[in-house]
């Protein structure tokens, strides 16, 4: 997302134990040269984010969840944060904030006003830390402070009723260990990776095969609407979902049959929606955020492709983005997940071997997700796309994915 001329932002989900999204941490930079939260750049960046949030609307950016935003000392003691509803904002107190009477008084004031406060990247002696009484959430970075090294701090914090957030959780085993220790919130990319054992792999494979029959027909030189309708009509749930999608495209006309519904869509749009519905079905036992990420990646990949020399490969780029989480949805490696799916060489190379131009788009997307701004700049220059355009496409993708999620799950 671009805020003004120089503000770039990304978001990372924060999960509850049941893998519902509790909120999003907003990662940002104020200008091209700024890659860290230090001095005035941190103040400018956070102020710009808050201003941008007010303009864009929280519902678009954090989807009516909590917004975790970093605050340094200068912003903490200003009144800018009070522009945001206390029921939406989580104030992340940076570890670099110097503890003094002014900060203590401000923390007390904010807590009394009902703001939720988190201590970010906590590495201090918990028992003696003077600001702990004001914080509801304690964040531990599992790279800086591995779980085995913080057991005593964890016990002390839990005994005082704190909510513990494990940050940079990269594997399922880390998630399970943190959960067993009493952590209630989790942040990291563990949710987008396959687990070791898939509980319902057979069921998911059956679902995948159903969609593959549709794909096989769509890939024929002259696909038959009659054959497609017959396949879809045998699945009540799929028929219902497709009719909901068609409702917006039929311009008020009554749709009496699946075959009639398909004619409103056209083959390319049908192909896109069938893939989206497959991802939703395969992700039925996964966090909804994984489907959300797939949709954002799909749209963002398409937008990037259209803005480059790959504009004729926009649908391939979209497919690559959508299927980039298929291994996690099916709990198997990507090669096994893609068996039986007839993909173009460009899509296969990107997903299976991280090679080719679509792979560059995938890397741009992942850099955006992680807030790895310098890497993003480099990759964007290789693709001859402007960095600020990528952020604009990202926000467009978030809005589009939000609309699709409402259609799929409401």
TrEMBL record:
<dbReference type="InterPro" id="IPR013976">
    <property type="entry name" value="HDOD"/>
</dbReference>
<feature type="domain" description="EAL">
    <location>
        <begin position="1"/>
        <end position="208"/>
    </location>
</feature>
<dbReference type="InterPro" id="IPR014408">
    <property type="entry name" value="dGMP_Pdiesterase_EAL/HD-GYP"/>
</dbReference>
<protein>
    <submittedName>
        <fullName>EAL and modified HD-GYP domain-containing signal transduction protein</fullName>
    </submittedName>
</protein>
<dbReference type="InterPro" id="IPR035919">
    <property type="entry name" value="EAL_sf"/>
</dbReference>
<dbReference type="Pfam" id="PF00563">
    <property type="entry name" value="EAL"/>
</dbReference>
<dbReference type="InterPro" id="IPR052340">
    <property type="entry name" value="RNase_Y/CdgJ"/>
</dbReference>
<dbReference type="Pfam" id="PF08668">
    <property type="entry name" value="HDOD"/>
</dbReference>
<feature type="domain" description="HDOD">
    <location>
        <begin position="204"/>
        <end position="389"/>
    </location>
</feature>
<dbReference type="InterPro" id="IPR001633">
    <property type="entry name" value="EAL_dom"/>
</dbReference>
């Amino acid at each position: 997302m671009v805020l003004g001329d120089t503000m770039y932002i990304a978001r990372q989900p924060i999960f509850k134990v049941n893998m519902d999204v509790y909120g999003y941490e907003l990662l940002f930079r104020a200008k091209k040269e700024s890659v860290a939260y230090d001095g005035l750049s941190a103040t400018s960046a956070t102020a710009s984010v808050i201003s941008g949030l007010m303009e864009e609307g929280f519902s678009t950016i954090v989807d009516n969840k909590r917004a975790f935003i970093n605050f340094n000392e200068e912003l903490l003691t200003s009144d800018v944060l009070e522009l945001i509803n206390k029921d939406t904002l989580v104030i992340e107190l940076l570890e670099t904030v110097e503890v003094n009477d002014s900060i203590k008084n401000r923390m007390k004031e904010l807590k009394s006003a009902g703001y939720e406060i988190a201590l970010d990247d906590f590495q201090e002696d918990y028992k003696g830390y003077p600001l702990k009484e004001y914080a509801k959430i304690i964040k531990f970075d599992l790279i800086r402070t591995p779980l085995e090294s913080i057991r005593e701090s964890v016990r002390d914090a839990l005994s005082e009723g704190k909510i513990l957030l494990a940050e940079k959780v990269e594997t399922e085993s880390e998630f399970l260990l943190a959960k067993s220790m009493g952590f209630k919130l989790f942040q990291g990319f563990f949710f987008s990776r396959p687990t070791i054992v898939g509980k319902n792999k057979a069921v998911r494979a059956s679902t995948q095969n159903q969609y593959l029959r549709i794909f096989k027909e769509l890939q024929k030189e002259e696909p038959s609407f009659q054959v497609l309708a017959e396949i879809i009509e045998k699945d009540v749930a799929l028929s219902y979902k497709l009719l909901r999608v068609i409702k917006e495209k039929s311009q008020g006309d009554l749709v009496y049959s699946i075959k009639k519904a398909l004619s409103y869509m056209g083959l390319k749009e049908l192909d896109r929606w069938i893939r989206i519905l497959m991802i939703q079905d395969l992700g039925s036992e996964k966090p909804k955020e994984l489907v959300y990420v797939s949709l954002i990646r799909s749209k963002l990949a398409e937008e990037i492709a259209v803005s480059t020399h790959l504009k004729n490969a926009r649908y391939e780029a979209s497919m690559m983005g959508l299927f980039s989480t298929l291994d996690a949805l099916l709990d198997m490696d990507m090669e096994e997940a893609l068996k039986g799916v007839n993909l173009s060489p460009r899509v296969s190379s990107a997903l299976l071997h991280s090679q080719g131009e679509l792979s560059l788009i995938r890397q741009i997307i992942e850099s955006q997700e992680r807030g790895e701004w310098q890497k993003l700049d480099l990759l964007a220059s290789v693709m001859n796309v402007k960095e600020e355009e990528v952020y604009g496409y990202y926000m467009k993708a978030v809005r589009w994915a939000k609309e699709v999620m409402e259609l799929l799950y409401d």
